[in-house]
């Protein structure tokens, strides 16, 4: 029962969507399944938040090393949640002035917007901005043209890096644009590399990945792969 | 350039002074040994200056590099140019502040282009923070430069819905079951431009601005491929994802703005046609960002070349022994 | 104190001094936010972002004006954002408590942000609003009307599944969450299988069926013909490389070798685009520091 019912649910949900794709009469089943999926995705956010609370409360209660940072996580989590869910400082919608919670929760100037604009944005954006430094460091430390394959990779990277900037244009602008060798102008080379070689390579990868996903999905829907049920 | 060097000598002094310890080390231990054991902090510092100095130079001088639009950027421009005033277009903002460096210039230019063409714009988001990106772009472009556009008549924000590709699967056939209100809580029944709109197949064009998953790939898979006759899609994508979208071109994806270069090329097209004699600098964000791109790309190439020269010289010495 | 620490302390103190001087003792100043205050509908005060240029022009026209004002909370916000930016960048030197504090703030704020967005954008209109539209009309979405104001009790199913999903947090009895998880997995597998089969498998095979001999305007086009041939050869050779059921010897071996070359070019191009992408992300943060915080550049002519 604990394992049979979930398997049946998996199969019904999956095959309802597949049937809806091929049988127009069953289109509404597919829409309903997809909408329930969308709603559950939001509840999964709540689950994630709950798990965050549980993990960090445990760290604080066990006094593990660095538990102070868990306090900061929880405090900022609770403050953001409170001002966001409570629409604190959000003016009601102009057409419904008597409904305090009718305004948009993202209203500019409200505390929730403040936390987004001056904490969330700089922190996430800077986290990703650091990757530029690491890519430069990786380029210096790891990329060696040890064999033909690596040389091809690096050579292509050079052409793309040059071709997508003004430097490449200047380097090869002496080649007449309508001549037989115009294909060697770096901006044209870039286009050929992307439209021929990259397209071919990524297309093959895409076909392979698609087959893998279809196989995995079928294993899940037919109950062959039950790893998502966990242990009893 | 010489004016810049004369007036901003302090910046150049700081840059050179920051490399003084490395220079002293090179003199003491030799350039080759120093480079072979180079601490990654020096590489980080090089990257910082490679990006900061051009940004400062462009910020002070206002200079930008010339951009020749590629075929794909031109295709995106032409797809919007083909539309007539009043045609409905759907924007899907599938990115967050982490990718705004590449995608915000595209979003700004695309919304400006559609506003100039007097298209009816419908905004949705598949990323939670995408809805805020929509608000930011509307404030920056529509409210600032197109005050004659009326919310509910010329543009509407439907907001975010969770479920990733599950959202696309629903709205291609039944948008009204998932969206009952706009992002401000107003019933769609009370919004004039939502009258008669039941699904996204009624849109003349879908414009997707994508940073990853869910994004352009999902729009191609779940909207364009099942409904090739009714749904037409163009996209702007981050550099990391762009090569993976090339197999969809041109049948499933007629136009693509790939990374900040695509954004800069598209901005150039939009400014040339709609920018007027003195274009607003906010529509040249991508163009300004090509300056640091150029220097940083040259730095990465130089780092790879230096590293390989060191590698081959040491390998040659080992073989000689 | 070691020499390195002394140098770092000197650099930090110099930087701090430069900031104090620039913020407090120069005519331009730095890192200030201004707002345009208006009265919105129903008498609600609205504060929209304004530039320092607009503020100066308003003050020049009427020194007693209060429509354009300096805004302290947003100014503190700009400095906080700059602090967070530098705190995250400090990780490049070494892991440190300031970075860890910023990271903790990010985790807390982003987790709560996602829940708030999910609650107001999805759970209220699409779950509670479907089961009990009158309740949602009474406090959150007064504009619900027509068919949207009629209860749809079928949504009790995702509500029940959602509550079951939350039992995953319980120490015991969390096997109940297997039902909604099974639904999610099944729906996801069903959605993805179709999308990948149609859009990535069948459509890509179709896209690969290209004419080997291209005729444009009645004339043979050698370049397009070569291009199409290379694409088809490339796709087939790359697929040969990924096909491990036959040994990669002879013709198969040569084809997979050519496939590897195509893939190396593909990965080289991906690397190039990745570098481009990452640098743009760094550029926007540096622009924020130089423009919004330090006021050293003004590309948007806001001052």
Outline the secondary-structure elements.
The complex is a heterotrimer of chains A (232), B (321) and C (303).
Chain A: H1 4-22, H2 27-62, H3 67-85, H4 111-142, H5 148-163, H6 166-172, H7 186-221
Helix pairs in contact in A: 1-2, 2-3, 5-6, 5-7
Chain B: H1 2-7, H2 9-18, H3 20-29, H4 31-36, H5 40-61, H6 71-81, E1 88-94, H7 100-116, E2 120-125, H8 130-145, E3 155-160, H9 165-171, H10 175-178, E4 205-210, H11 216-224, E5 233-237, H12 242-245, E6 255-258, H13 259-274, H14 285-320
Parallel strand pairs in B: 1-2, 1-4, 2-3, 4-5, 5-6
Helix pairs in contact in B: 5-14, 6-13, 7-8, 7-13, 13-14
Chain C: H1 3-25, E1 34-39, E2 45-50, H2 52-61, E3 68-70, H3 72-89, H4 97-131, H5 133-139, H6 156-166, H7 178-208, E4 215-216, E5 219-220, H8 222-242, H9 250-293
Antiparallel strand pairs in C: 1-2, 1-3, 4-5
Helix pairs in contact in C: 3-4, 3-9, 4-5, 6-7, 8-9
Task: Characterize the largest beta sheet of chain B: strand count, sense, and whether it forms a barrel.
Answer: 6 strands, parallel
Instruction: Give the rounded overall mean pLDDT of chain B.
Output: 93
Question: For the terminal residues of chain B, how far apart are their CA atoms?
Answer: 49 Å
Distance between the termini of chain A: 11 Å
Total strands of chain A: 0
> Shape of chain B from CA axes?
elongated
Number of domains of chain A: 3
Roughly what fraction of the amino acids of chain A lie in strands? under 5%
Number of helices of chain B: 14
> What's the Cα radius of gyration of chain B?
24 Å
Oligomer type: heterotrimer
Order of helical and strand elements of chain B:
HHHHHHEHEHEHHEHEHEHH
- Rg of chain A to the nearest angstrom? 27 Å
How does the helix and strand content of chain B classify structurally? Answer: alpha/beta
**What gross morphology of chain A would you assign?**
extended
Largest interface chains and counts: A-C, 135 and 124 residues
């Amino acid at each position: 029962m604990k394992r049979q019912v979930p398997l049946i649910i998996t199969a019904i949900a999956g095959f309802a969507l597949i049937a809806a794709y091929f049988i127009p009469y069953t289109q509404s089943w597919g829409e309903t399944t997809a909408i329930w999926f969308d709603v559950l995705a939001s509840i999964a956010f709540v689950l994630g938040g709950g798990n965050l609370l549980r993990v960090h409360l445990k760290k604080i209660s066990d006094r593990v090393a660095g538990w102070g940072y868990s306090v900061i996580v929880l405090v900022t989590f609770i403050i953001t949640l409170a001002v966001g869910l409570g629409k604190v400082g959000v003016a009601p919608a102009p057409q419904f002035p008597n409904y305090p919670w009718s305004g948009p929760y993202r209203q500019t100037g409200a505390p929730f917007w403040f936390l987004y604009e001056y904490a969330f944005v700089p922190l996430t954006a800077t986290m990703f901005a650091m990757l530029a430094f690491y890519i430069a460091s990786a380029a210096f430390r790891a990329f060696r043209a040890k064999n033909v394959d690596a040389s091809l990779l690096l050579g292509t990277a050079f052409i793309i890096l040059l071709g997508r900037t003004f430097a490449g244009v200047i380097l090869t602008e002496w080649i007449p644009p309508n001549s037989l060798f115009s294909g060697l102008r770096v901006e044209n080379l870039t286009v050929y590399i992307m439209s021929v070689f990259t397209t071919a390579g990524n297309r093959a990868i895409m076909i392979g990945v698609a087959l893998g996903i279809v196989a995995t999905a079928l294993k899940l829907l037919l109950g062959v792969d039950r790893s998502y049920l966990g242990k009893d | 350039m010489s004016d810049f060097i004369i007036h901003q000598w302090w910046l150049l002094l700081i840059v050179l002074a920051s490399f003084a310890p490395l220079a002293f080390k090179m003199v003491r231990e030799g350039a080759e040994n120093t480079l072979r054991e180079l601490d990654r902090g020096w590489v980080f510092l090089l990257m910082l200056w490679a990006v900061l100095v051009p940004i400062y130079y462009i910020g002070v001088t206002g200079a930008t590099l010339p951009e020749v639009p590629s075929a794909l950027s031109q295709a995106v421009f032409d797809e919007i140019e083909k539309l007539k005033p009043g045609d409905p277009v759907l924007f899907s903002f599938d990115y967050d502040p982490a990718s705004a460096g590449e995608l915000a210039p595209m979003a700004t230019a695309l919304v400006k282009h559609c506003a100039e063409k007097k298209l009816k714009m419908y905004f949705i988001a598949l990323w939670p923070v995408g809805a805020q990106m929509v608000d930011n772009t509307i404030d920056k472009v529509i409210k600032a430069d197109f005050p004659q556009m009326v919310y509910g008549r010329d543009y509407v924000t439907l907001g975010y819905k969770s479920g990733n590709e599950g959202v696309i699967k629903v709205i291609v056939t039944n948008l009204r079951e998932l969206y009952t209100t706009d992002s401000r809580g107003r019933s769609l029944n009370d919004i004039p431009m939502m009258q008669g709109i039941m699904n996204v197949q009624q849109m003349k064009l879908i414009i997707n601005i994508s940073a990853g998953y869910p994004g352009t790939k999902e729009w191609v898979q779940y909207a364009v491929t099942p409904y090739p006759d009714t749904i037409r899609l163009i996209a702007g994508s981050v550099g990391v994802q762009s090569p993976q979208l090339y197999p969809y071109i041109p049948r499933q994806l007629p136009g693509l703005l790939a990374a900040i270069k695509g954004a800069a090329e598209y901005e150039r097209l939009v400014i040339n046609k709609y920018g007027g004699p003195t274009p607003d600098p906010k529509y040249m964000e991508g163009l300004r960002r090509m300056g640091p791109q150029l220097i940083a790309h040259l730095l990465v190439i130089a780092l790879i070349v230096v590293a390989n020269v060191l590698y081959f010289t040491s390998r040659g010495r080992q073989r000689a022994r | 104190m070691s020499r390195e620490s002394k140098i770092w302390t000197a650099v930090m103190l110099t930087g701090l001094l430069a900031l104090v001087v620039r913020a407090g003792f120069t005519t331009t100043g730095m890192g200030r936010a201004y707002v345009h205050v208006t009265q919105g509908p129903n008498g609600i005060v609205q504060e929209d972002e304004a530039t320092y240029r607009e503020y100066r022009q308003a003050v020049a026209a009427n020194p007693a004006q209060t429509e354009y004002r300096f805004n302290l909370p947003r100014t503190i916000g700009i400095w906080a954002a700059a602090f967070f930016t530098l705190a995250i960048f400090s990780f490049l030197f070494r892991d440190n408590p300031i970075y860890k504090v910023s990271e903790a703030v990010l985790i807390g704020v982003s987790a709560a942000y996602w829940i708030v967005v999910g609650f107001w954008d999805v759970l209220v209109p699409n779950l509670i609003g479907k089961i009990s539209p009158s309740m949602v009309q009474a406090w959150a979405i007064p504009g619900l009307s027509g068919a949207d104001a009629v209860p749809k009790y079928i949504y009790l199913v995702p509500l029940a599944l959602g509550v079951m999903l939350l039992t995953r947090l319980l120490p015991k009895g969390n096997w109940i969450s297997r039902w909604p998880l099974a639904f999610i997995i099944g729906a996801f597998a069903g959605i993805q299988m179709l999308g990948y089969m149609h859009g990535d498998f069948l459509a890509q095979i179709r896209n690969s069926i290209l004419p080997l001999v291209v005729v444009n305007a009645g004339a043979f086009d050698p370049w397009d013909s070569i291009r199409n041939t290379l694409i088809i050869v490339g796709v087939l050779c790359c697929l040969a490389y990924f096909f491990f059921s036959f040994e990669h010897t002879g013709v198969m071996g040569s084809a997979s070798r050519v496939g590897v070359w195509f893939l190396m070019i593909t990965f080289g191009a991906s690397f190039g685009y990745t570098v481009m992408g990452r640098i743009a992300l760094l550029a926007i943060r540096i622009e924020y520091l130089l423009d919004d915080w330090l006021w050293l550049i003004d590309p948007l002519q806001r001052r």
